[in-house]
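From the shared-data thread, chain only:
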Amino acid sequence: MALTLFDIIRGPRITEKAYRLNQLVRKLVLDVHPRANKPLIEEALKKLFNVEADKIGIVVLKGKKRRSGKFFTVGKLRKKAIITLKEGQSINLMDIAGVQSEAAPVAEE
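Structure, as tokens:
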């Protein structure tokens, strides 16, 4: 089964750290499909959001162990991509997520 562009990028990872990286350093943190690789992610960014990546880092998050009675189960494998956008390009993290509220600006350190 081939991955489509919409399958590759599952959505933004919205955390305080990801929001701060997006505002201060032009980095974007996205949840991606576990079989996605850097060239596929770069192509999806160009076609879906019209931005180019300067650098892409991928982090594989192993599934958590959970206990159910005397048995252990393991959660799903997840993958996230930390993308540095090229100079002069930006994406608002909240636009991707579809959030309509106004967030407070991040203080400069």
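DSSP finds four helices and six strands in the chain.
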